[in-house]
Amino acid sequence: MNITDGQSAVTEARASMKGQVEHVRHELSGVRTGRASIGILDSVRVDAYGTQMPLNQVATLSVPESTLIVAHPFDPTQIGAIERAIQTGNLGLNPSNDGKVVRIPIPALTDERRKEMSRIVHTLAEEGRTGVRNVRRHVNDALKKLLKKHEISEDDERQALDDVQKVTDEHTAHINDLQKAKDAELLER
């Protein structure tokens, strides 16, 4: 971090916290709900051409209906590897292929599975909020060091600390909104 004054501290905090929010958004997209979403397959790695490759680099993914994902391999010889990768991906999905495409039906979630997914969502959101608070702490420490070295005035430090807290509250609220939206999505039937 290159913090030289109060304004750069706020700018730095905003950028780092935005990164935390985007990370939470990405992680939540991988949590499976009852609806088909290509994001749930982000963690799937296919053993192709002697290396582990992301699924979206060996197949085109589409969602033709709300409970089905279709993977159309770029190379038809990889269809078996794609199917195995999805089965072993620990997502609770059972793909099938017809020789040309891999169909991945998304089963309805049981109440128990919904609760488990909700706990995961809450954990991911809390990790994001903790990340935002860590950024705040780091920036506040940097501001205190600047004050101690007499590089900024007490008034500038106080104003910057207030501004950093506002940015923290803003990003924490955004993570809370992402969590509520994902919880609502999990409860849909």
What is the β-strand count?
6
Q: pLDDT under 50 segments (min length 5)?
A: none
Q: What is the helix content?
A: 55-70%
Q: What is the rounded Rg? A: 22 Å
Report on the biggest sheet. 4 strands, antiparallel
Number of discrete domains:
2
Mean pLDDT over the residues: 87
Q: How many angstroms separate the termini?
A: 45 Å
Beta-strand residue fraction: 5-15%
| Shape designation | elongated
Tell me the structural class.
Answer: alpha+beta
**CATH class identity of the largest domain:** Mainly Alpha
CATH superfamily of the largest domain: Ribosome-recycling factor
Which second-level CATH architecture of the largest domain applies?
Orthogonal Bundle
Q: What is the element string, with H for helices and E for strands?
A: HEEEEHEEHH
Major sheet: order of its strands? 3-4-6-5
CATH topology of the largest domain: Topoisomerase I, Chain A, domain 4
